[in-house]
Amino acid sequence: MDSSEFDVRNAIGLVRRQIWLIVSTVLIIVGLAAVYVFLQTPTYTASTLILVDPRQKNALDPESQMSLLPTDNARVESEVEILKSPSTQIQAISRLGLIKDPEFGVKLSTVDRLMVFLKIKTMENLLADTDAQLRAVLARFSDNVSIARRGLTYVISVSATSADPAKAALIANTLSSTYIDAQVDAKISNALSVRDALNRRLAQASTTINENENRIDAFVNENIEKVSNESTRADITTMRANLEALKAESVSAQSLQTSVASLAANKDWDGIAAQLRSDTITQIKAERDKVLADIGSAAAGSARESNLRASLAQIDQRLTDQVNVELGTLSDHVKTAQQEQDRLRASIRDTVLSSNLSNDVMVKIYELQQESTVAKTLYQDLLQRLRGVETQADLQLADSRVVSSALPPDAPSAPKTKLILTLAIVAGLGLGLGLAFLNENFIGGFTSDQQFEAVLGVPVISSIPLLSRAGRSITERAQVASELLDHPLTAYSESIRRIRLGLENILKRKLQDKNREGGLIIMVGSAIPGEGKTTTAIAIARAFAMSGKRVLLVDCDLRRPSIAPSLGLTPESGLADYLTLSLDSQSIRQFVTKDKVPGLDMIVGKNSHRTSTDSLIETAQFNLLMELAKERFEIIVLDTPPILPVVDAQYLATRADIVTLVVHWASTSQRDVRAAINDLRTTAGDDLPIAAVLSKAELGVGSYRNKYNSYYYYAPES
């Protein structure tokens, strides 16, 4: 329970501390999204719904459809892929004329324009590549068309997107109709392929029948005299003569039929009249000739010419109808002659078979008859199938149909303003929180003792709460420096005492096995300026003095001494003056200032020193000062310059028994703190104890220590 409360509290604190980073990130992301929405051209999407009937359609046998249901969904998925295929979409593009459409048509890319500008290619060469143009239009068309199956149903949705709502509906409907027409055309093509194969087989069967009949006739002709002599039948010769006459008449009629059909296809009415010698056709042709003569004399474009041409069309239709009648008569005549031939041929055969023939003649005739019968049966079967296939080719139905045509949409489908802005807000919050976390835990400063110790391996002995009156002015810094004296029972004062306790414990562990004499030197430093180092050093010195220790506080920041201003002091001389003079131990007293806390002496700075100060730290005067301080005081607190900007602190660290590193809570970057620690350990060695203090901590209302603020602080007595 405590752990979860701590996590929630930390999360709330993180958001509160990094609120401006989070808000800025959200505003930037939302602003970019708004610009994107504003710059986007609204597009509209229209959808057509197609129902795929998995049953194969057969108009000649509707009952057979029920037994053709598939057992899987492969059929519907196949139709989806056909709709997506380039061939179907190219046909739709052709129907719509999108090659020259300003939205979907050919457009020169930036590279092409650059090549034209540099005269590497010409506009004519680019536009002459029709295949490349078609591929570009097809790619643009495919990007704006969406085809998908609706769940596990047999319904396919065909959606088209365009800047024009009417065009979007037109594209969806045209693509759907193109697909359905292609489906019908494919069925017709299959049927016609079967028809062509059957026609070839029929031609072979017809040839076989003719060959068989010719073989029978040839056998009969070759053996007619022998058959007549053996059978004593003279009528066989007569029937044979009649058969030959019918054959000649049938060939003549077939030739005339073919010739007239060819002339009719070319509308050669004169030739037809000459061939058929029909009084009706001759009369109609005479009427036609008269109308043609009248047309020649009529004024071009006149009503009379128009009426005459209408009459000419009617006469042509009459001629066509009459020629069809004559062709039908010829066809009937040919059929009749063929039937008569078949009758005579059968009679001859029957007569021959009924005659007393020798066995070898009977066997041969029977063999030829059986071959002819089989060929005719096969021919009739193929002919029946051919008629069925031809009928199916004319009655093909699509297996798919449009159940809902696309309508022009009223509202644009993109950009989805609400969705984009909502996602932008969510993304902005996510990114903002992520940046806030990175800033606080990796890029930014430290916000907890555990975080500091986990990252740097340095113990944190206390967190000093931020005082509402803390600031950078002299007055505000003086108030902070006096907080321990003025309000000894506040959380701030308790955190200072916690620092003193932490330092004492670390020093005890360090010195318990060593016989060391003299005072202990505590260095108070920070990685960079503005961390609250000086006020913390003053507070630490006063805390030790108030515990009964003899304490010396030394302002070692020779370049920017801060203790005197923080305490409101105006010294006549400072540490820099002492270090630049050759004075004995008795003369040091004139540089010592008494604090109002008994037991605390101070050596403060007077003015900023504008020259190099690290050499002063290494002088014999400073060594003498440190030796005298350790002899006369139990605790020596050194307020040092910032570690990273100035090297003075690193020299001072070699003299210290412990370093108190003051780090501004949630502000000083982890990189700077790590660099400062590395510098200290490089100069003073890894054995130098370092204890961290988080200053100006915003503990918040839910803080563990703040819960007991009433215990720390009592109102002043009146």
Structure report:
The structure is a single chain. With 718 residues, this protein is α/β, with parallel strands linked by helices. Among the domains are: 205-400, no CATH class; 444-513 and 521-712, Rossmann fold. The protein is 61% helix and 10% strand. The protein contains 28 helices and twelve strands. Strand 11, helix 26 and strand 12 (690-697) form a beta-alpha-beta unit. The longest helix has 58 residues, at 165-222. It is rod-shaped and about 175 Å long. It starts with a helix and ends in a 6-residue tail after the last helix.
Proportion of helical residues: 55-70%
Average pLDDT for all residues = 83
Q: Please provide the count of β strands.
A: 12
Outline, from the CA principal axes? rod-shaped
Report the sheet-strand fraction: 5-15%
The end-to-end distance, rounded to whole angstroms, is 42 Å
Domain AAA: 522-670
Pfam families: AAA_31 (PF13614), GNVR (PF13807), Wzz (PF02706)
Catalytic activity: L-tyrosyl-[protein] + ATP = O-phospho-L-tyrosyl-[protein] + ADP + H(+)
EC number: 2.7.10.2
Topology at a glance:
Layout lengths: L1 H16 L1 H21 L4 E9 L21 H11 L1 H11 L13 H8 L5 H6 L1 H14 L1 E5 L5 E8 L2 H58 L1 H8 L3 H31 L3 H8 L2 H19 L5 H52 L4 H36 L5 E5 L12 H27 L5 H8 L3 E6 L8 H8 L1 H4 L4 H21 L8 E7 L6 H14 L4 E5 L7 H5 L7 H6 L12 E2 L5 E4 L10 H4 L2 H13 L2 E5 L8 H6 L4 E7 L5 H15 L5 E8 L6 H4 L1 H4 L6
Parallel strand pairs: 5-12, 6-10, 6-11, 7-9, 7-10, 11-12
Antiparallel strand pairs: 1-3, 1-4, 2-3, 8-9
Task: Quickly list its features.
single chain, 718 residues, alpha/beta, Rossmann fold, eight-stranded mixed sheet, four-stranded antiparallel sheet, 28 helices, 12 strands, disordered N terminus, disordered C terminus
